[in-house]
Amino acid sequence: MPTTALVSKYTISDVINSYSSLDGNAMYVKVANVLALKCPLFRMLPMVASNQVMSEITSKIASMGSPTLRRFNEYVVPTANHRTPATEPIAMFQDWSEVDSALCDIQNDPTQWRMDEDMVKVESITQAVEDQFLNGNISQYPAGINGFFTRYRVSTARPNGVSTTRPNVQLAGGSGSDLTSILVLELGKNKVYGIYPKNSRAGLNIENKGKVTSESSTGRMDVYRTKFEMFFGLVVRDDRYVQRIANIEVSGSTSIFNPAQLASALRRLPGGGQDPGTVILVPPTVMDQMDEMAMDKNNVKYEPDNVWGGQITKFQGVPVYVAEKISEAQTAIS
Hints:
Radius of gyration: 25 Å
Number of helices: 7
Structural class: alpha+beta
Shape: globular
Number of domains: 1
Oligomer: single chain
Helix content: 10-25%
Distance between the termini: 53 Å
Number of strands: 14
Order of helices and strands: HHEEEEHHHEEEEEEHEHEEE
């Protein structure tokens, strides 16, 4: 007998679960998406229109000219700054939502019911984009982008190829494949920012297609259709704006989160941790460890704060956010 893929279709059991009872006049219960994750980077990353149709051409300073000490009547040989060009691609996520129009029309509040179903799609795209920002790898998925963990996976590499600059990847000492990382970022235009095509709108575009007839090999059905689309890319103008602490053990008592390394990562930023766009992204396990340390009144590196109506931990004045798309099953890097 034929089967229906529950991933792409809404069944009557989904409708029943959306109501407080089977009574036809039951109050609608707003969907609590149990799959929702904390994706702060998606919400905080500045988005800038690209300078190309589907890419951003940037350059990084590879070396600076050297001034000359001069006395009167002496000539000076001009020097030049040298830049390394780079092109950052723009990727696109797209999805569609289709619900049986008859199924939608019988709801107590059809508009709200359809909106809540669409919000699940919004959460899905949010998580997918956040995952690309963090873990994207063009060699595996050519249509995507290179995320932070793909770009910065060698602890001996020097930011921007400048040998006198301290590495922007530190190692906590863990081994195996049950590790995680911390990211320290300096967000802002001309620093670390997202891009979208210059002839489009930033963010997630949601287009209501209305009531249409859907056709398949098994027949036809009237549906309410919604299209979801988002263009996005990632630009890092200076590698020093991204600091990573890798190889952190998620369990045990050794090679775990080390506050001294985090303080060092902040100092290695161009703004030294003082720039207003500075943020710290950590996985849930590391946040647990940080919150435990923050409860120690003698630990002056941590402080609670109230941002947007909610409590947030700060480390040396820099806000710390949980990013659940930071894997806690990373493999050790060297």
